[in-house]
Amino acid sequence: MAFIEVKNIRKSYQFGKNNSVEILKGVNLDIEYGEFVALVGSSGSGKSTLLYIMGLLDQANEGKVIIHGHSMLEMTSTEQTNARLKYLGYVFQDFNLIPELTITENLEIIGIADSMSVEESRSRAHECLREVGLGDQLSKLPSELSGGQQQRVSIARSIMNKPLILFADEPTANLDSKNSQEIMSLFRSLNKKFNMTIVMVTHEDDFKKQVDRVIEMKDGVVIDSQ
Amino acid sequence: MNLSFFLAIKNLKSSIKLFFLVVSILSFSFINLSFFNSLNNGIEDVTNTKLIDYAFADLTIIPKEEETFIYETEEILKKVRSLGSVYAASPRLSATGSLFDDKGSFIPVIKGIDINEERYISKFHSSIERGSYLGRNVRDEVILGDELVGNLDGAKGTTGFEPLDLRVGQRAKLIFDNGVEKSYTVSGIMDTLFWIPDFYLLISIDELREVYGFNEDISSEILIKINEGYTKEDVKVQVANLGINAKVIDSLEELSLAETILESQKITTLLANVIGIFSTFIVIFIIIYINVNNKKKQLSILKAVGISEKTIIKSYVILSLLYAIAGIIIGFIGFAMLTLYLELNPIKLPMGFFYPQYTILELLTSSLIIIVSSLFGGFFASHKTVKKNIVSVLRGVD
Ligand SMILES: Nc1ncnc2c1ncn2[C@@H]1O[C@H](COP(=O)(O)OP(=O)(O)OP(=O)(O)O)[C@@H](O)[C@H]1O
Ligand SMILES: [Mg+2]
Q1: β-bridge mates for residue A21, sequence order
Q2: Using CA atoms, how far apart are residues A99 and A78, in angstroms rounded to an integer?
Q3: In ligand 1, which atom is closest to the CA atom of A15?
Q4: Is B254 part of any domain?
Q5: Ligand 1 atom closest to residue B397's alpha carbon, by position in its atom list
Q6: At B320, phi and psi to the nearest 5?
Q7: pLDDT tens, position by position, A139-150
Q8: Number of structural domains chain B divides into
Q9: Tens digits of residue pLDDT in B3-21
């Protein structure tokens, strides 16, 4: 039994009353614990949609996502929120930081939500920010940082609660190649250092060689997962 | 620290201009609520005082149910006056008729009074603005309420009726409702600062009895003023126990006249409260709704990283509460200043000078109204947006 099992996931979007288009047409996938996989495929093939469903950010119409033996999609939304808080981390293409909070606070709120004390949470936030090389920017607002730095903040946030799985949707799409490579290296070190399972959607061919496995999608199904 | 509170504070700080806007609206709402109440209290109070001073005294003896008059006035007066708790008692006889000047006529409320005793149970004698009070045993004089002849500045009365052109010393023709026509000298014009007695025409009760062919024992009512240290309830029981052939009532309490006057004010107060509740709710709802919608992406991010909807909604409810509390504080300061100003510069209303009056309970009620409506507004406004699908919001579809 794999660490993450995706079974026959279907997802369609409704247009008007009677039209609907199926984006995921029965996706099956196994990912092992500690694996770093890249999810690739042409634009519109359903990579993000699949990632969001696996990450419990969106609902599927059919199918199962089983993580460590737990059937995740059948949980209540409160349980899913809790699972996101405790076991899952996210890195998005456009960083998605809260602009009015300092980068420390952006991380801190997660610790507080997970019933840490403010002090505990703050020192954990600082630890994570140092981990991604931002130890000297702790009280800056996101807008005061470069894109590459902001993405580092969002990675730091994603590891705040020591998640089991990191989901990243084209985390380097908005960055230049130098920054992209740095971010990629950061993911690799997290994967090695903490044995974090990472699922990353990417378009960059360079990265395919840097991951454990490449999963390719086309038209809503997985066509190659080695 | 509580995460909802933390988020609320951050939210508040990030939109400080909005905060001031909302707080000023809520403070107006608070002033509106509290001031309206205190205004009505002031009016109610002054109305009660005026009704006692001119229309009812403390207690009123009226005819028995099926009768039009009190027929044993002399005996009742004797008995009532013998009570140690009674300061004074005086009979009145009511009638109607038409009062004429050169051009037209008007229908005053004619009150026959015992000229000597009346001064102990009412304040007519001290309300004469021009001329003088009725002379002892003078029968061919009348006092006119100033609504009948226009206010002192010559303006129309509060009711908008064309006042009569009658001055002190002039003779005025009066046709009583039994058809008797007589002329009287206007001895004085009174301004009671209350519109009801300002429509009265005062005349000697003996004269009025003669006009109607009544004997000395007939009156419409007997007004009683009680001595200090006694309660109306006690004296009422004492009078009732005298075994008189009439009914004693606390008019202020029982007569629907007083109630009607106060009722309309109660309705306006209620209306002001309802409007206050509603407008506060709407203001908070709209502000929070806009705020939540502007921040829906942030909300989805918070949800994505595992912060519960409950925590987020709570943060908006707390934000609303902060708005409300600041609004109440500012509103209270405004209210206090307004009240102070009016205490120094009282307003003259048809029923007299009035001062806003309020109780702590009423201020607390206004505060509670603001707080509760804010909480509901914040809850309902954030609830729906917070429930939106995370991915749709992050993708910008919703
Ligand atoms: N909320 C939505 N409503 C309707 N259609 C949607 C919605 N979200 C996604 N889609 C459609 O689903 C399809 C797959 O989208 P998805 O974002 O998963 O593709 P992708 O593989 O991530 O593409 P890209 O590489 O461009 O990011 C697209 O055609 C997209 O238009
Ligand atoms: Mg995508």
Answers
A1: A13
A2: 26
A3: 4
A4: no
A5: 1
A6: -60, -40
A7: 999 999 999 999
A8: 2
A9: 999 999 988 988 898 899 8
Full 3-state SS string of B212-236: HCCCCCCECEEEEEECCCCCHHHHH
The alpha carbon of residue A3 and the mean position of all alpha carbons in its chain are separated, in whole angstroms, by: 16
Tokens of A13: 């979007």
Which one-letter amino acid corresponds to residue A170? E
Q: How far apart are the first and last CA of chain B?
A: 32
Average pLDDT over residues A80-107: 95
Three-class SS of residue A78?
A: helix
* Selected residues 60-79 of chain A with any CB under 8 Å from a CB in chain B: 77-78
The candidate with the shortest Cα–Cα distance to B240, out of B80, B75, B74, is B80
Whether B9 contacts chain A with CB within 8 A: no
- The first and second tokens of residue A8, run together, are 């026959």
Place of tokens 């130098």: A178
Q: Which member of B13, B298, B394 has the closest CB to residue A98?
A: B298
Q: Could you give the CA distance from residue B322 to residue B279 in angstroms, rounded to a whole number?
A: 17
Helix (H) or strand (E) holding B190: strand B181-190
Cα separation, A161 vs A130, in Å, equals: 15
B210 and B296 fall within a common domain: no
What's the full length of chain A, in residues? 226
Q: Per the domain annotation, does B322 fall within a domain?
A: yes
Regarding whether B305 and B206 lie in a shared domain, the answer is no
A215 forms beta bridges with A39
Residues B104 and B196 in one domain: yes
pTM value is 0.74
Q: Are A136 and A108 in contact (CB under 8 A)?
A: no
